[in-house]
Design brief:
Strands 1-3-2-4-5-6-7-8 form an eight-stranded mixed sheet. The chain is an alpha/beta fold and 362 residues long.
Length: 362
């Protein structure tokens, strides 16, 4: 297994591979899967996926976002601009500023992919082999919607990503990152104003890794969601990770009150940017000359039914939005929903036997 997390900063893309399984031995038609991590928990979470690459003729790449190990930190001017966006009262100009901030994050992912394809000479998509699958886990799903919303504005050069792209996956995406309205009753430690910043981080680590017993959200709505009480068995993934595993999987600075992850999330929530980006990602928009909108790219939304409430709520709200678009004749991107039975938000870290995927509309 190749481990790329020792790379430093330098010329080229600001995002870098934290983990790289390497190309499968003797394969010339492998598929490359690129994963973007979530809030506070970085690419180290996916280390146990690395050995699976050879078995499935796949090269697995996990990139770390800005301010996380191996990738560039935000510059002082970029950080000051983010603080401005997160702390200024809402206005159309500020909302647009946040949308443009996320467009820049999408461009970073796009630039990484172009550079990686060119540098590594990965196999092009051909039939059922080769090509690229890009996946965003948790908060990383907001980078996927930003990418879908803005790729139409990125003219292709000598590397035409549209010829490599096989699929885009929003992996256990949060309803918050889609800008959907909150259910009637909910709890989220990161939005609990009764807690200090440090208390929010500590409580979130246990809560987000727990297993929850929800009802049928598609028939019962928000009343089916459990947001406080976790199952005792299985215990939260956090409780079963060693100190070494936690140290290799988390990064505290972006989670602090003045950290880039928290500022970005609060700016997007406060100013309604997530909803704007979702609209641009899911509905047909004008495409710039020389660009590709990836409109026919297969998109999947994967959700674990033992995950925190946000992921189930996202699946329900997205299903309803697609149904409404069909009823009204509105042109909307088709998304296949895949339910992971028995899976919590961290199933890729410490899998629990018995979970299985089931593709359906709900």
């Amino acid at each position: 297994m190749a481990d790329a997390h020792s790379q430093g900063t330098g010329p080229g893309p600001v995002l870098r591979a934290y983990l790289d399984s390497g190309a499968p031995q003797d394969s010339t038609n492998y598929t490359t899967v690129v994963i973007v991590h979530g809030y506070g928990w970085h690419g180290g979470n996916f280390k146990k996926l690395m050995p699976l690459g050879q078995q499935f003729n796949t090269r697995v790449i996990v990139i770390n976002r800005r301010d996380f190990p191996g990738s560039d930190e935000y510059t002082p001017s970029e950080k000051a601009h983010l603080v401005h966006l997160a702390t200024t009262p809402t206005s159309p100009e500020i909302t647009q500023g946040v949308v443009e901030f996320m467009r820049a994050r999408a461009r970073e992912v796009y630039n990484f992919l172009v550079d990686f394809v060119k540098r590594e000479r990965i196999p092009v998509r051909e039939g059922s082999t080769g090509g690229l699958i890009i996946a965003g886990w948790s908060l990383g799903s907001s980078y996927m919607t930003a990418l879908l919303a803005n790729v139409r504005l990125f003219p292709e050069g000598d590397i035409q990503l549209s010829k490599y792209m096989r699929r885009l996956v929003m992996y256990d995406a949060s309803s918050i990152c889609f800008g959907y309205p909150f259910p009637p009753k909910w709890y989220q430690p990161l939005l609990d104003t009764s807690l200090t910043g440090e208390e929010r981080i500590v409580r979130f680590c246990t809560w987000v890794t727990g297993y929850f017993s929800h009802g049928d959200v598609f028939t019962l709505g928000g009343a089916a969601l459990e947001s406080h009480t976790m199952l005792a068995d299985p215990s939260p993934t956090y409780a079963r990770m060693t100190p070494a595993e936690l140290a290799a999987s988390t990064h505290r600075p972006p989670q602090l009150d003045d950290g880039s992850d928290r500022l970005m999330v609060m700016a997007c929530i406060t100013h309604g940017a997530y909803a704007v980006i979702r609209e641009q990602a899911l509905y047909k928009m004008e495409t710039a000359e020389g660009a590709s909108d990836w409109w026919n790219l297969p998109v999947r939304q994967v959700w674990g039914d033992r995950s925190i409430w946000e992921m189930l709520w996202c699946a329900k709200m997205l299903t309803e939005e697609m149904e409404e678009a069909r009823r009204t004749g509105k042109t909307m991107r088709e998304i296949a929903l895949v339910r992971f039975e028995g899976a919590n938000h961290f199933v890729s870290v410490l899998p629990v036997c018995g979970w299985k995927p089931r593709e359906s509309s709900g």
